[in-house]
Every structure is written in structure tokens, then in C-alpha cells.
Design a protein that fits this description.
elongated, 8% strand, 2 domains, 4-stranded antiparallel beta sheet, 4 strands, alpha+beta, single chain
Length: 341
């Protein structure tokens, strides 16, 4: 197939390319393909830190200076109808005079170089959100974006191919795809780490590792008293150690199992120590017999002994009944043996 204009295809206007791009996108969707286009826009290609840093890195190498301007035009007018970024690879479809397929391969960031970047940025990146938003110091940004030793690839680490007939090492379609990567990083900055096959969490894990740990406590003179703080701000300070609240009734009761165990132990002890009822009665009778005072009257001694033997010993100071009083009088009136009447 021969082309006019010295073997090149005839020029296609921007409006015609857009129309062709829309038709190609509709045809791809009918086949079930999922496209991720770079929408057409005006102004700067990238607006965030990571997108700008990627584009600045491309424009910083003289290898690409001749072809990049045409690529910027293509990416702005929506010619990149599909751009997929994966680990170490970019696949895209660009609409020119025809639909062309572009593949860009980026080598993984060397492990030693990645460790050096992490060590140099240690203690400066506090969170993943801060990292992806590019909100860190100028020193960290310069270290990550440093040509040759930073995170961004150099020309020798990028290989690309395009299905167009251009014999140049980088055609305008490839340039459009490389700029499209910068536009995509505006929305998904984490894709840069996937493209270089490194883990962004490595930088966050090293946060604070370079900072010395202080074990000194503030001097007593530098600590404000609670009363002063209350006077300055007009607030009432809470007690540092609030008084312990009395335990509510019934809350501190021991478990039922422990109570049952204690009761069984007590019953076992009482069962072991308690003598039989008959033995206790005999012992009580014997002790009562020892403690009762001995009266000179034989009748009283006999009555007392009889009461003790029957197990009905009475208290000494208890009042006597009329029957007992009569018995005592008769006993005292009887003459004892051996006494003269």
C-alpha cells in the first residue's frame, strides 16, 4: 500500500481524529472491551505533584526533545482512547490517521537505588496520604525526582513500540502515551510505584526511624499548674486522679460457686468438731457436777445430785420454788447422825 506525501499518510485534522476516536471507542465497547481514555482538555497536561514531576522528567532528557511537542498535541485533543498502566508496562491505543497500538516497558527500580531513596527520605514521610498527595519537604521531592538516581526512569530504562509506520525511535503516538501517563498520575499517583515495581509503604514504614527517641521528662518548673491553666483559659480543670466511687451494693458479691464452697467447708468443720449429743450431755453433766458448791446438808446434796443425774441442772442463782424451800426446811430441822437430840 503506497501513501502520498513521500510515503506518509495524508494529514488528518483534529476534528476528524476525534470523530474516528469516538467510533473506535464505541466499536471496542460493543466487543466487551473496557477502555480507559485520556479525556481531551486545555492547558497544562498535569496539575499535581506526581503528574508534573513525570512530565518534567520526560522533558529533561535530550533524547525526547524532538518528538515530545507533537505528543502533547495528541494527548490534549483526546487521541489517546485507551491507556492501561500495570507493573512495569503501559499499553495504549492512539488514534492518528488510523488506530495504532503502543506498548511502553519500564524496568523496575533497582533494589539498591530504592533502599537509598528510602534511607534518604527516612523520617520525612509520615503517611501514605501525605506521600500520594506529594505534601512533603522540598528536600524529599528533590531526592525522589533526582535524575538518574530518583524514582523516575531514565531513557535507557524505557523501551517502547508503536504499530505506526514512523521509523523514528519515538513517534508522536509514543510521546502522547508518555504524556498520558503524567495525566493519569494526577488521578492515580500510586500507579507510578506499580510501574517501577516498588512498594510505596516502604517509605512510610521508615518514617521516624531516623529521629532520636527522647526519654527525658519536662522539668517541674516548665509544667504549668492546673490552677494557672484554669485562670488563663477560664475553665475548670478535672482532677488528675478522681476519687474512687463506692462500690454499689450487691456488685462485689462473691460468685455463687465460692459461697457454696465456703458453706460446705464450714459444715464439714462443724460436723468434724461436734461430738454426739449423748456425749455432750454427759460432759455437761460432769462439768456441772464439778462446779456446783457442796452444801453441808445431805438432803440438799442428794437433791442436787439427783437433778444433775437427770440432766436437769439449774442455775445456782435462780429463785427456788415453794416445794424446794419446804424440802430445805425439813432437811435443816432433822438432826444429823451422832448429834444429841
Amino acid at each position: 500500500m503506497s501513501y502520498g506525501h513521500g510515503g506518509w499518510k495524508p494529514y488528518v485534522s483534529v476534528a476528524e481524529r476525534r470523530k474516528k476516536a469516538e467510533l473506535a471507542a464505541a466499536k471496542a465497547k460493543k466487543t466487551g472491551a473496557t477502555l480507559s481514555p485520556i479525556a481531551s482538555y486545555r492547558g497544562a497536561i498535569a496539575r499535581t505533584f506526581w503528574g508534573k514531576a513525570w512530565c518534567d522528567n520526560l522533558e529533561g532528557y535530550s533524547d525526547y526533545t524532538n518528538r515530545l511537542p507533537r505528543g502533547r498535541t495528541y494527548v490534549r485533543n483526546g487521541s489517546v482512547i485507551d491507556l492501561q498502566i500495570a507493573a512495569g508496562k503501559v499499553r495504549a491505543q492512539v488514534m492518528g490517521s488510523s488506530l495504532y497500538t503502543v506498548e511502553v516497558t519500564v524496568t523496575a527500580c533497582p533494589e539498591k537505588q530504592w533502599r537509598t531513596i528510602g534511607a534518604d527520605c527516612s523520617g520525612s514521610i509520615d503517611s501514605m496520604v501525605e506521600l500520594l498527595q506529594g505534601k512533603f519537604s522540598t528536600a524529599v521531592m528533590e531526592r525522589i525526582c533526582k535524575p538518574g538516581t530518583g524514582l523516575f526512569p531514565v531513557p535507557k530504562e524505557i523501551r517502547f513500540s508503536c504499530s505506526c509506520p514512523d521509523w523514528a525511535s519515538m513517534c508522536k503516538h509514543v510521546a502522547a502515551v508518555l504524556y498520558g501517563v503524567g495525566a493519569r498520575l494526577d488521578q492515580q499517583p500510586e500507579l507510578l510505584f506499580a510501574l517501577r515495581r516498588v512498594d510505596a509503604n516502604d517509605l512510610v514504614r521508615q518514617a521516624g526511624t531516623g529521629l532520636p527517641k527522647s526519654t527525658k521528662r519536662p522539668a517541674a518548673g516548665k509544667v504549668l499548674d492546673d490552677a494557672l491553666v484554669a485562670d488563663v483559659f477560664g475553665i475548670e480543670m478535672a482532677e488528675a486522679y478522681p476519687p474512687a466511687k463506692p462500690a454499689a451494693a450487691g456488685r462485689n458479691k462473691p460468685p455463687v460457686a465460692k459461697v457454696t464452697e465456703k458453706k460446705s467447708a464450714r459444715s464439714a468443720v462443724s460436723t468434724t468438731r461436734k461430738p454426739p449429743a449423748t456425749a455432750k450431755t454427759a460432759a455437761d453433766n460432769k462439768s456441772a457436777t464439778r462446779k456446783l458448791p457442796v452444801k453441808p446438808s445431805a438432803g440438799l446434796r442428794k437433791s442436787t445430785a439427783g437433778i444433775v443425774a437427770a440432766g436437769k441442772a439449774k442455775v445456782v442463782n435462780s429463785p427456788a420454788t415453794p416445794k424446794e424451800v419446804a424440802t430445805r426446811k425439813r432437811a435443816s430441822a432433822r438432826p444429823l447422825k451422832g448429834e444429841p437430840r
